[in-house]
Amino acid sequence: MKILVTGGLGFIGSHTVVELQNEGFEVVIIDNLSNSSIEVLDGIEAITRKRPLFEKMDLRDKPKVQEFFKKHPDVEGVIHFAASKAVGESVEKPLLYYENNLGVLVYLLQELTQKNKANFIFSSSCTVYGQADTLPITEDAPVKPAESPYGNTKQIGEEIIRDTCAISPQLAAIALRYFNPIGAHPTVELGELPLGVPQNLVPFITQTGVGLREQLSVFGDDYPTEDGTCIRDYIHVVDVAKAHVVALQRLLQGKNESNYEVFNLGTGKGSSVLEVIHSFERVSGEKLNYQVVDRRPGDVIQAYADTTKANEVLGWKAASTLDDSMKSAWDWELKVRR
Questions:
Q1: How far from the centroid of its chain's Cα atoms is residue 310's Cα?
Q2: Cα separations (Å) of 125 from 45, 206, 240?
Q3: What is the distance, to the nearest Å, from the Cα of residue 60 to the centroid of all Cα atoms in its chain?
Q4: The dihedral formed by the CA atoms of 250, 255, 260 and 262, expressed in degrees to the nearest 10
Q5: Which of 94, 229, 237, 335 could pair with 149 in a Cys bridge, judged by C-beta atoms 3.0 to 4.6 Å apart?
Q6: How far from 119 is each of 42, 181, 239, CA to CA, in Å?
Q7: 260 catalytic, yes or no?
Q8: pLDDT per residue over 170-221, tens digit each?
Q9: Is the pLDDT of residue 299 over 90?
Q10: How many CA atoms lie within 13 A of 252 on its CB side?
Q11: What is the dihedral sign for C-alpha 205, 319, 151, 297?
């Protein structure tokens, strides 16, 4: 069974390709390599002993998207990761984000709605909730006005899919709202390799630990939390990848209750910035050089998932602990810097 994974050489995409191949799916990857590396294919092959099909393509080129689906009429499912994802950059370049994240989504859905049956998994985000009124956050929590164009593309993306499903009975879709994916594959063949200065906490921690960054900034320690730092739900990337396979199989087996469903992907536990730092120090044996600085505008105080729906309806549960995730992230950093 052939599955298209867009952005399949990225952090979450590549781990998902591994899990798909482990389950016997034939995978085709589309990636424009704007925020990834062709060497990731070697990592996937090293783990699974199989090299997925790969096409370098910019999905903003609509004729090429059309051409791809003519060439691969047997694609039975699409897992869509390809998107720009830096919050700060989205504020500076909103039109790039709207074109890249929404235009591409429209082109893919236009092709899928022409098929007799199509299955679509969307890479969404907990950013759609903003600062939720109650914790933990359920899928029924109100979607708040987005804090950035990036967050807005996830909200609008979900709306586009929902509206398309409403008039397209042949299309079945699931939006997976991840909280904070971290870590690396246990083989250390794949991991998070941000280009330039990391936008996320964990790669900044590991790069500081290995000496690539001089110091980690902790943005504020006066929040209304136990230790004063912001709280997030950090989930191992392999757990996230496995959830995509479970969601895809749900659609392929016709177990979905409607043709558009939404699930949170998290551990159900919040960890503060300082707890993540202490976890890193515990598993690495390294003392981290960090300094508390002023708060950063737009940071949500606390966000962690209610995972009941994913656990009971989807039949998936996160397996790894924070220490597991930090240990794999550190092992990956050490390998990359050798």
A1: 16
A2: 28, 23, 12
A3: 20
A4: -60
A5: 94
A6: 28, 24, 21
A7: no
A8: 999 999 999 999 999 999 999 998 888 888 999 999 999 999 999 999 999 9
A9: no
A10: 16
A11: negative
